[in-house]
Amino acid sequence: MTSFQDFGLADPISRALKEENYLTPTPIQAQTVPLAMTGRDVVGIAQTGTGKTAAFALPILHRILENRIRVQPKSCRVLVLSPTRELSGQILDSFNAYGRHIRLSSALAIGGVPMGRQVRSVMQGVEVMVATPGRLLDLVQSNGLKLGQVEFLVLDEADRMLDMGFINDIRKIVGKLPIKRQTLFFSATMPKDIAELAEAMLRDPARVAVTPVASTVERITQRIIQVDFAAKQGILAQLLKQEPVDRALIFTRTKHGADKVVKALAKSGINANAIHGNKSQNHRERVLAAFRTGEIRTLVATDIAARGIDVDGISHVVNFDLPNVPETYVHRIGRTARAGAEGVAISLIAGAEEMGYLRDIERLIRVALPREDRRTPGTRDAAPAPSQNRGGRSAPRGHSAHGHGHGGRSHEQSPGSKGPRRPRRGGGNNAASQPTRHESPRPAQGGNSESIQGVAFLHRESRPNTQPNRTHRPQR
Ligand code: AMP
Predict the structure, then answer these.
(1) Least buried of 46, 79, 142, 204, by fewest C-beta within 10 Å?
(2) Nearest C-alpha to atom 14 of ligand 1 is from which residue?
(3) Best mutation site among 26, 208, 309, 453 for ligand 1, i.e. most ligand atoms within 8 A of its Cβ?
């Protein structure tokens, strides 16, 4: 399945996808959409960033359109449960974006905000309800919402919901749903307890999973170079001259940063181009075409602009700035080592904040990355390296890291993994005495590749209009 046309989605949905600039389905979409369009239950192993929201939203919207019925007051046809407020808001935004031509009615029910408006928002009934489990149950128990008309249930990030102590709420909610429904169940990992939950809730589900990231990540030589802030530009130019670069893709966090890198490289005699949101579509296409043919060998991009860059032969990915969302790192470095090739990913780290981001990344990929220290000796204390990583083992994230059952509803207020991270303070400073060195990365002991599924990470654009308590009710 190589294009969205092949799915045979209803025309207004296809139009919305074009407007969203979705050209090719991601692997999880290619697997899930056709199955779910037939009405089958699906259990999917996929992480956020793989395009899984569209994987469940598109077939559901298609099926809603096939049979457009009136929603009863205080009811919904689609119920999506997600662990956090932030993720719930993003899912609702996605439904509204894909459903923009079908006059979709939708509402959000999340914890941490007064319930009154949420009660009012579902008074007339909505087609799509996105909720965190605790608040949804409160709404049901206070007679604000009835679940008898639910035809589609989605559980998103099931493992995280379990981690956050929502299991009992979920069981209670599912117990109130009609037996005849379609259930789509997504989780980044599938340990025994999650598999059992899926087993109890799904009927003869089709199973889908995206390619484990590990196979790609293993082919990438990941280098972490600790540098002084002021030296980043110089070291980047040096690296690009020393390394056997075929094509290099350099990531910066900001558009301004991208332009600065291009200018500094030009001063060092390296011809580079930038693509980011302030450049025209025309410019972007021209630059990408030149990068593809090899005319331009060095491309500087922000994450959003780099979305959809599908160029083989990128020998080097350089993180000029480290992303604050760990999944983005995996997505970035996955641009190299395409089609079975080898690749090098180099990250320049300056300061405690970026060191904190690095630790989050290591937790996600379950690999302790070796550091090369190129800071000037007098400045090393300013950006200490973490002591826990020197032994080659990083803490796994997810349930094993936090255990189960702590929390419950109050966790609805905890920010989702996609939100901006707070700046961190660094750990110990034992890297200060480390000589400059480069070791090959090695997997941490006891790593579990299940947790690093999904090479095809996509960057979720922040949607600034994400507000709690939103209801979307077009005029009928
Ligand atoms: P998700 O994994 O659902 O959080 O999606 C991550 C990001 O990828 C979101 O910003 C989506 O809008 C975007 N996205 C999802 N599917 C596609 C696609 N087929 N083409 C381009 N972008 C996509």
Answers:
(1) 204
(2) 51
(3) 26
Contact 336, 317 (CB under 8 A): yes
Tens digit of each residue's pLDDT (9 = 90 or more) over 192-231? 888 899 999 999 999 998 755 444 566 789 999 999 999 9
CA of 301 to the centre of ligand 1 (A): 18
In a shared domain, residues 202 and 223: no
Between 377 and 97, name the one with better pLDDT.
Answer: 97
Which strands form 316-319's sheet, in the order they lie side by side?
273-275, 298-301, 248-251, 316-319, 343-349, 220-226, 371-373
Ligand 1 site, residue 170, Cβ cutoff 6 A: no
Distance 50 CA to ligand 1 centre (A): 7
Q: For residue 432, how far is its CA from the centre of ligand 1 (angstroms)?
A: 40
Which amino acid residue places its CA nearest to atom 21 of ligand 1? 22
Q: Of 160, 181, 209, at which residue does a domain stop?
A: 209
* Maximum average pLDDT range among 262-266, 381-385, 404-408, 465-469: 262-266
Please write the tens of the pLDDT for every residue from 334-346.
778 665 567 899 9
**Structural domain harbouring 436:** 214-476
Same domain, 121 and 229: no
Q: 54 in ligand 1 pocket by Cβ < 6 Å?
A: yes
Looking at per-residue pLDDT, the higher value among 399 and 304 belongs to 304
CA–CA dist 121, 105 (Å, integer): 10
Give the closest residue (by CA) to ligand 1 atom 22. Answer: 22
- CB of 48 within 6 A of ligand 1: the answer is yes
Cα–Cα distances in angstroms (integers) from residue 82 to residues 88, 104, 154, 356, 374, in the given order: 6, 20, 8, 26, 43
Q: Which of 179, 209, 239 is the last residue of a domain?
A: 209
| 50 CB near ligand 1 (under 6 Å) | yes
Which amino acid does the sequence have at 288?
L
Mutate to test the pocket of ligand 1, among 460, 461, 466 (most ligand atoms within 8 A of CB): 460
Q: Helix axis angle, 232-242 relative to 255-267, nearest 10°?
A: 60
- Report the number of distinct structural domains present in the chain: 2
- pLDDT: is 24 or 455 the higher one? 24
> For residues 308 and 173, what is the distance between their CA atoms, to the nearest angstrom?
38
Compute, in angstroms, the gap from residue 34 CA to the centroid of ligand 1.
17
For residues 154 and 233, membership in a common domain is answered with no
* Claim to verify: residue 197 and residue 232 sit in the same structural domain: no
CA–CA dist 409, 411 (Å, integer)? 5
pLDDT of residue 43: 95
Higher local confidence (pLDDT), 33 or 471: 33
Query: Mean pLDDT of all residues in the chain?
Result: 78
